[in-house]
Amino acid sequence: MDRPLNDIWGIILAAGSGTRLAEASGGVRKQYLEYKGAPLFWHSARTFSRVAGVKGLVFVFPPDDAKAMEKEVRHFFKVEDLGVEWRVCAGGERRQDSVRNGLGALPRACGGVLVHDSARPFVSAGMISRLIDALNEGARGVIPAVEVTDTIKRVDGDTVAETLDRAVLRGVQTPQAFETALLLEAHERAEAEGWEVTDDASMVERLAEVRAIEGERGNVKITTPEDLARLEEERVTVPCVGWGYDVHRFGGENDRPLVLGGVPIPGKQTIVAHSDGDVLLHALTDAVLGTFGGGDIGTHFPDTDEQFSGANSGVFLKEVLAMAGEAGVRVVHADLTVIAQVPRLAPHAAQIAANVRRLLGLDPHQVNFKATTEEKLGFTGEKKGIKAVAAVTALREL
């Protein structure tokens, strides 16, 4: 019977010591190893956040790291807000102690919980969704499991005691999903009665039925030095495109002189603007931001901030290009158009293109500049203002 659970949270276990990997990883605990520019625990957090049923996450770190890692997680959320609630707590001596501490950090209203090892960074959002679906359909505990392909033998010392029937054997993965109250009860019993277990299902099995769903072969755990090769996959370069648009109205003799692409344009036209009003560089800056999802120019350089009064727009572009570099993005082409009835821009086109190339650090064939009119239509045709559009092509390493 369907009974949707309220406030499902994930517990991401990142409290292990990683002793088996310590030498191979240079002493870095495996949960902090980087994969595609982010630590393993953050990859799991990203995946959980993509599942509609997940309301929040509890990160469990080693006790001596918890305080520092709370600041680190706060920084991660500031840079990349995952859109879920989050908390940090300290782990314990054993895995089950860390899970129990994570359960203690959950809000009272949490009806369902998924416990996941951060050393499994390749888990899919689809599998998490299937686990939640099984809970909502009435299962009290659900685990992902994969068929065993090797022949399994029970060995006593160095002697084979028996060959097990692999048809009934499964390899168990995380995340494992449970009713929160049931998992809490299981941990309380384990603590009171001295149970030693390697996963949460081992506890819950003593109290209630646990359902198995199909796991994923790709949901591997980074455990041994050989597994580190999985984190060294070839980086893939993908193209990305950003588009920018900006407009300014013409002003009077006390407003800003007209500047396009960092080039002063002589004549009587002036610009109403907070910064220098370079409509072309503003459109270009927005387009660069678009290549890596960086927001818009107004977010980074608001016209309500006095420090940007009269500011050189080339500085805005330079700072945004630095942000693009940090995001692994390299601009390779820009196509720019200014739309204005006046002034006539053909005499300045070569200089504007050359200056934009200089600002972007590109060759002549990588920057195209055009100027056009709107045949006396609209506000530009009526000589009330000027506008620009920019299309930027970039390459990003993933």
TrEMBL record:
GO terms for biological process: isopentenyl diphosphate biosynthetic process, methylerythritol 4-phosphate pathway; terpenoid biosynthetic process. Residues 240-398 are annotated as: 2-C-methyl-D-erythritol 2,4-cyclodiphosphate synthase. Residues 241-393 form the 2-C-methyl-D-erythritol 2,4-cyclodiphosphate synthase domain. Its EC number is 2.7.7.60, 4.6.1.12. Transmembrane segments: none annotated. 4-CDP-2-C-methyl-D-erythritol 2-phosphate binds at residues 246-248, 274-275, 296-298, 301-305, 372-375, 379. A divalent metal cation binds at D246, H248, H282. The keyword Transferase applies. One of its GO terms (molecular function) is 2-C-methyl-D-erythritol 2,4-cyclodiphosphate synthase activity. InterPro entries: IspD, IspD/F, IspD/TarI, ISPD_synthase_CS, MECDP_synthase, MECDP_synthase_CS, MECDP_synthase_sf, Nucleotide-diphossugar_trans. Pfam families: IspD, YgbB. Its cofactor is a divalent metal cation. It comes from the Bacteria. In the C-terminal section; belongs to the IspF family. Bifunctional enzyme that catalyzes the formation of 4-diphosphocytidyl-2-C-methyl-D-erythritol from CTP and 2-C-methyl-D-erythritol 4-phosphate (MEP) (IspD), and catalyzes the conversion of 4-diphosphocytidyl-2-C-methyl-D-erythritol 2-phosphate (CDP-ME2P) to 2-C-methyl-D-erythritol 2,4-cyclodiphosphate (ME-CPP) with a corresponding release of cytidine 5-monophosphate (CMP) (IspF). This is Bifunctional enzyme IspD/IspF. It comes from Pseudodesulfovibrio cashew. The gene is ispD.
